[in-house]
């Protein structure tokens, strides 16, 4: 049995079974991970209030057959999250592999989550998806302005207008 204590940013929280949740987060030492939050759906859960999407937390994990969240503590005050923050965490969740830590990505997330549109451009470059030399997947036009998260492709304004709003990130 292995125990980890690390800083993390919460990328998503999903129901798992009747009383548990699955926490998806990007950590400083472990990269992107999924951990089981036992009793996370119960009204009196001690962990759930600290694990808001886009929030920075210090977490304690135990690994036996799977990662299990044992303790969580919010390290930054709770604030109203902007739509930009949700786009940033969706982008990181979609484009980062599990279990591969990246110190540069962690520092960029820590510094820029929810700050401004520049954070999106910086994250694209760190993740290897620079929109500057890219062209639209549908028509080949440049410059591109949208990135489709499920397809990992760039689109221009005209072609991207047909995509569902919740599946795209604006990159310019």
Structure overview:
- By secondary structure, the protein is an alpha+beta fold.
- The chain folds into two domains: 2-74, Nucleic acid-binding proteins (OB fold (Dihydrolipoamide Acetyltransferase, E2P)), CATH 2.40.50.140; 83-170, no CATH class.
- Helix content is 21%, strand content 32%.
- It contains four helices and eight strands; from the N terminus they run βββββαααββαβ.
- It has helices spanning 83-95, 103-112, 118-126, 157-160, and strands at residues 2-16, 20-27, 31-37, 56-63, 67-74, 146-148, 153-155, 168-170.
- The strands form two sheets. The chain has a five-stranded antiparallel β-sheet with strand order 3-2-1-4-5. Strands 7-6-8 form a three-stranded antiparallel β-sheet.
- The mean pLDDT is 87.
Task: Output the keywords.
single chain; three-stranded antiparallel sheet; OB fold (Dihydrolipoamide Acetyltransferase, E2P); elongated; alpha+beta; 2 domains; 172 residues
Task: Summarize this entry quickly.
The chain has helices at 83-95, 103-112, 118-126, 157-160; strands at residues 2-16, 20-27, 31-37, 56-63, 67-74, 146-148, 153-155, 168-170. The chain is an alpha+beta fold and 172 residues long.
């Amino acid at each position: 049995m292995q125990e980890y204590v690390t800083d993390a940013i919460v990328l998503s929280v999903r129901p798992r079974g009747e009383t548990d949740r699955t926490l998806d987060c990007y950590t400083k030492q472990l990269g992107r991970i999924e951990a089981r939050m036992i009793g996370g759906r119960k009204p009196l859960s001690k962990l759930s209030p600290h694990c808001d999407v886009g929030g920075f937390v210090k977490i304690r994990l135990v690994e036996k057959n799977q990662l299990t969240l044992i303790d969580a503590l919010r390290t930054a005050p709770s604030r109203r999250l902007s739509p930009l923050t949700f786009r940033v965490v969706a982008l990181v969740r979609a484009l980062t592999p599990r279990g591969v830590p990246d110190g540069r990505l962690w520092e960029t997330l820590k510094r820029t989550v929810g700050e401004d549109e520049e954070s999106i451009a910086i994250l694209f470059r760190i993740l290897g998806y620079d929109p500057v030399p890219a062209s639209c997947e549908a028509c080949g036009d440049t410059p591109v302005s949208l990135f489709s998260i499920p397809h990992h492709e760039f689109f221009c304004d005209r072609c991207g207008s047909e995509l569902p709003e919740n599946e795209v990130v604006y990159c310019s």
